[in-house]
């Protein structure tokens, strides 16, 4: 029986374009990077806790080179790749033999997540560690409610489906990782306006890459979105929630 074709939830070309725009926006000195910074800090802390000092590391999505610099400071040889620049996460990697593969904020928008995890594991040498962090289920509750208000009686697909902790743990087991761990944490971020939140999402590569994306918001819908966002504010700020899922496991 031929293998099942994964559903086409995300548009790869649209995904690459959104990440290329993110790379350009991140050149600004005041570009928001709090999600990526949190993921990198978490990876560094996990490596210290596990006393795992990699000699050869593969980093996916380390767009500023911050994690690369931290690992190289310990003597690691680091290879970095970026999906926006042609790296294919849903195909076998062209290299292997790493004792660390870390993916930062990319695996939430691949169509074949089990396949992508298998490729990560195969890139590891025996005894190598895999760590991935990305936005998870429960993220952007305010934006979800705002979009429903904006679309009124004709809701459209605008927010990505996301993986939760339980599904993440099951995926690690399914794809052959040893000692799999899935956990989530949240970040609360306050925004002064609807436009500011959208700008932050755009600058961090978190806008819509669905294959069947909804139509653009019209003027009236945009006004409803702004009003709904303002109605959720307190003291002039609306607090949004980001859930970050981290998956880790070893190759034995």
Automatic annotation (TrEMBL):
Transmembrane recorded as keyword: no
InterPro entries, A to Z: Malonyl-ACP_OMT, SAM-dependent_MTases_sf
Signal peptide extent: none
One family name in Pfam for this protein: Methyltransf_23
Molecular functions per Gene Ontology: methyltransferase activity
SUPFAM superfamilies the UniProt entry points to: S-adenosyl-L-methionine-dependent methyltransferases
Keyword set, alphabetical order: Methyltransferase, Transferase
A single BP term in Gene Ontology: methylation
Entry annotated with the keyword Iron-sulfur: no
Cited PANTHER family: ARGININE-HYDROXYLASE NDUFAF5, MITOCHONDRIAL
Protein name in UniProt: Methyltransferase domain-containing protein
Organism: Novosphingobium rhizovicinum
